[in-house]
Amino acid sequence: KPEPLWLFADQLGRHIHSAPEHADRDIILIESTAALRRRGGHRQKAHLLLSGMRHLAAELGERAQLWQAEGYRDALVELGRPVVVHEPTSRAAHDFVHALVEEGLVAEVLPNPSFALSRDDFETWAGTASSFRMETFYREQRRRFDILMDGDRPAGGTWNYDHENRESPPKSETLGVDPPWWPTEDEIDEQVRADLDALEIEWSGADGPRLFAVTTDEANEALRTFIDQRLATFGRYEDAIMGADWTMSHSLLSVPLNLSLLDPLDVVHAAEDAARNGDVDLAAAEGFIRQIIGWREFIWHLYWHFGADYMTKNSLDAHVPLPDWFRDLDADAVTARCLSDALEGVRDRGWVHHIPRLMILGSHALQRNYDPAELTEWFRAHFVDGYEWVMPVNVIGMSQHADGGLMATKPYTSGGAYINKMSDHCRSCEYNPKKRVGDDACPFTAGYWAFTHRHREMLSANHRTARAVSTMNRLSDLDAVLEQEAHREVF
Ligand code: FAD
């Protein structure tokens, strides 16, 4: 019999364990208590990982062995024969696996199976470039995998329909689209919950019903529901936030994608088919496909390409430690509706959609000069879809501009006016997005000008942000804003 295949908790999909090269292999899954303790973080994320591994073990029956051990090495030593693995998704796990090769516990490291583009092909594409733009990468991905292409032209004649995807939320309370697919918990989830209780680890966040797919069948159902019932409205309100509708038209597929339950090319083919069949507009399908073979793959490859040093980048010299209320997800300590709602989502579900991550949580941290490495770890720990590979480029790069612009042309932050336009939070907020000074001055509005002032040299040298500095220079109350924000403790 060939060596068994040891699958990590984020490699659970059928396209991996049922690949022809593994047909005769037994499957090894290992739950390491030491790893759970070391990573800590959101209770619901630990639940998803254990539930995913246990469901796969149950599905594979005698073919699978599920080990519960203190450490991974302990289990492999006890197993008594070398295993093969697919390359893991973090630098630390990569180093660990290669140490196990030296020790004879791992016989072979196969390529990572969870992304469409291989790491070698990315490096060939990247060549000697030092900074990268997603749009260039995305077009290359479309051509390479022949997605939404008519010959060598993009379907519909346009690569990117992003300009159609920036609508303010409607006046209604919710978007009114069909709900996403929700899982039904079973006895495996019940056991996971009891086992997590027994571990006595101090998790963050609230426990709650499982909200995401953890098996290939569940992930396929979630994908089908999204494509059939929600993709049509995906693009249009992608940048909007609605207080009473946390899912809006988002796919909620990041968890099953990051557990590798879905092959990313199957996901984009499903969206492309819906557009080609006339079930959804091209703009909606294109917007979604861009997230999957564009953004997701771009972030993955740059994690490796930028190297370990990237985590230490801090080009805006931000050193403020995360305040306790932020670190502890204490949404009740926050007055600003948008920030309180985002923190509440992280606490209660370990998930908020892209815009609260970028334009509320990330923007707040950027304005307040929070330490980018500490913030990266915060996102990794508290988000149910947070893994080492996905954090640095999203947080250090896109959200905090701490890499000096290696992957984004400008810092992402805004005043309350943008939040007021793109969300329904300001209506019920004690702060006034138009006010810069005073008890009801919006911390995002005032914080935006304080940020602009702090980085005025860098911002005025960039044609995309220079106007913010000239506007700031015309503010008659700038000194009062800066004085107020220097002492703000309540948000
Ligand atoms: P949708 O809006 O439906 O998008 C579809 C899919 O596109 C997502 O499921 C995801 O797989 C992919 N995608 C889109 N943008 C990105 C991106 N920038 N990076 C990676 N994948 C992307 N995504 C994570 O998977 N894990 C994280 O921990 C994470 N942290 C983030 C932190 C910050 C500060 C920011 C700005 C973004 C982060 N993202 C992260 C990206 C994005 O916000 C989430 O993938 C998305 O909100 C997940 O919800 P969804 O599945 O409904 O996504």
Automatic annotation (TrEMBL):
Q: Indicate, by first and last residue, each region the UniProt record lists as having compositional bias (Basic and acidic residues).
A: 161-170
> Region Disordered: which residues?
158-180
Superkingdom classification of source:
Bacteria
What PANTHER family does the database record attribute to this sequence?
Answer: SLR1343 PROTEIN
- What name does this protein carry? Deoxyribodipyrimidine photo-lyase
Per the UniProt record, the lineage of the source organism begins with: Bacteria, Bacillati, Actinomycetota, Actinomycetes, Mycobacteriales
